[in-house]
Structures are given as structure tokens and as C-alpha cells.
Amino acid sequence: MTDGGVNHSRPQSIGNTGLSDADSVVSQEVTVANKEGLHARPVMRFVDVASTFSASISVFNQSGRNERVDGKSAMEMMLLEAVQGSVLRIEAKGCDARSAVEALSSLVESGFSDGSSAEAGSP
Predict the structure, then answer these.
(1) Model confidence over 49-99: pLDDT tens digits?
(2) Exposure of 2 by Cβ count < 10 A (0-12 exposed, 13-18 middle, 19+ buried)?
(3) Bridge partners of 3?
(4) Domains of the chain, start order
(5) pTM
(6) For residue 31, which of 101, 110, 86, 95 has the smallest C-alpha distance?
(7) 3, 15, 36, 39: the active-site residue
(8) Which 8-state DSSP code applies to residue 21?
(9) Closest CA to 88 of 34, 51, 23
(10) Which residues have a Cβ under 8 Å from the Cβ of 22 and sit 6 or more positions away?
(11) Is 8 a catalytic residue?
(12) Distances (CA, A) of 57 to 1, 5, 75
């Protein structure tokens, strides 16, 4: 599925397909869905999930300066200044890169919701 030229379907492998799993690089573009964008709470959620993977994780705000930040650093993630509708490219390198990109892409696309009533705005 695409949205405004953004590929939301599945993570894409980058580079030489003859690479070992430890050297594989996977990336996917996602659109920030939540209306507040990437403020402190969603950034911490992203970093918490990213930190569960051994892969190195980089994030680029394709709608902004397109600079690389470390997806496991809350301070760097805040520098993305991503608002609702911003297109992020999540890139991971390592043996669990595909799983990392899938989990992080789902998190962003869900609006960082964990399904709790507090996030949904219910009492």
C-alpha cells in the first residue's frame, strides 16, 4: 500500500543480498500518525522498543532535514522535530534488523498507541 508516494507495505532490504544476517540493512518509510507528532512520550516508547533489538537503528525525517539520528537515543530522536504527517525512514542493520523495522514501523503507524484507555482518551 502507498500513501503519497510513501511505501508502507513492508520493510525493504538494502544493498547486496549476499550479505550475512549480521550485515543486512532493512528500511521502511512510515508516516507519523498521531496528532501531537514525536513529543517526549512517543519518543520514549520508540526508544524503549528499539532498545530491545541488537540491530543498530537509524531514523531519518524525510519531511525535514533528512539527517540521521540514533533510534536508541531519546535526545537524538527529539531532534527529528517530526509532526503529524512527517515521513520517517527507519533503517536497521544487524541480525534482527527486519524484526526491529517491523516493530518500530507498526508502533509509528499505530500513533504510538498501546491500546490502553489512557492513550485512547477514555476515563
Answers:
(1) 999 999 999 999 999 888 999 999 999 999 999 999 999 999 999 999 999
(2) exposed
(3) 6
(4) 2-111 (3.30.1340.10)
(5) 0.77
(6) 86
(7) 39
(8) G
(9) 34
(10) 94, 95
(11) no
(12) 24, 23, 14
